[in-house]
Amino acid sequence: MELAQLNSFIQVADSGSFSQAAAKLGLSQPSLSRHLQQLEQSLGVSLLDRYHRPISLTPAGEFFLAYVKPLVEQLEQTALLTQRFAHTPSDSQLTIGFVATVLYGLLPEVISTLKQQFPELNIKLVEVSSEQQMAALKSGEIDVGFGRFRHEDAFVQQIFLRHERLVAALPADHLLSSRPAEQGIALKELVDETLMLYHRTPLPNAIASGPTDPLLYLFEQHGLTPKQTMKVRDLQIALGLVAAGEGVTLVPDSLKTVRTEQIHYHRLYHEDATTPIFMNILAHQPHPFIQPLLSATYHVYERKGITYSLTQLTP
To answer: What is the DSSP string of the chain?
Structure first.
């Protein structure tokens, strides 16, 4: 059983076509067919039903695909990361991936703190979704990522930094905007509003029958469902629509300085209405400046009086 045979099987299973699979792999169709025949002979079972179009899998093929595909993907990622060991990360540049809601928070101050200690360090910022940060780290596109969602990946270490409270973003003339600051808003008071949904990445590992949008998931956790929602492309559009009086949304507390003339930000009554912040790094051979970056992050949190989770990196 060879890797080329397994890749041939996976491509045919995914595309349902010998010609498409052969083109993607850069093989002739006879070579592709030979790979598949050799694989079936080594297993002693038929994996493909060749008499239907598109080509379908036999029950044995379905079983084999479910288990072998993640193994092949992991093997390919291992090979890629092994090759990266030959290239020592640059000591002069640090590429940081981030999600937009983190950039509006304390990340600029963290970077400024790091630069004060290492003025020669060239820092590059790239917007990358929480989900895409996993692949970006392994490909070398970024050296570290700041995201909001937990992911399970054997090649990536996630460092939990802290929980950030969510606040309600309301039009400035909304009835709830006049409520005293010390009195929180309950989610049930927002179910009749149009809720702006701005997250690009669905919740990972969400309950199959439940909502995958983080805001809708929060409402469901309290037994609530907003009567109207509007899905928008990004956070800025969501806040623009709130400012125009088209609805409301929930954002991390660090965004409460945005559009303050048109938007009123009010704390939520619920203590569990929070969003986490993670630092994502390679589990093996992390960038030399990860520890200084983590120390700068903790330094900013301490200066701001923010509760955080302390993690010591293992050498």
So the answer is: --HHHHHHHHHHHHHS-HHHHHHHHT--HHHHHHHHHHHHHHHTS--EETTSSS-EE-HHHHHHHHHHHHHHHHHHHHHHHHHHTTSPPPSSEEEEEE-HHHHTTTHHHHHHHHHHH-TT-EEEEEE--TTHHHHHHHHTS-SEEEESS----TTEEEEEEEEEEEEEEEETT-GGGGS-TTSPBPGGGGTTSEEEE--SSPPTT--TTS--SHHHHHHHHTT---SEEEE-SSHHHHHHHHHTTS-BEEEEGGGTTTTTTTEEEEEBS-TT-EEEEEEEEESSS--TTHHHHHHHHHHHHHHHT------PPP-
Q: CA dihedral defined by 250, 255, 260, 265, rounded to 10 degrees? A: 40
249 has which bridge partners? Answer: 169
Write out pLDDT tens, residues 277-313: 999 999 887 888 999 999 999 999 999 999 999 987 7
Check pLDDT > 80 for residue 231.
yes
Residues 102, 148 contacting (CB under 8 angstroms) = yes
The predicted model gives 109-124 an average pLDDT of 95
Distances from the Cα of 273 to the Cα of 62, 108, 198, angstroms: 41, 24, 17
Cβ-based neighbour number of residue 301 at 10 Å: 18
What pLDDT shows up at residue 197? Answer: 97
Token output for 123: 């820092």
Residue-wise pLDDT tens digits, 67-105: 888 888 878 777 666 666 555 555 689 999 999 889 888
Pairing mode of beta strands 274-282, 48-49: unpaired
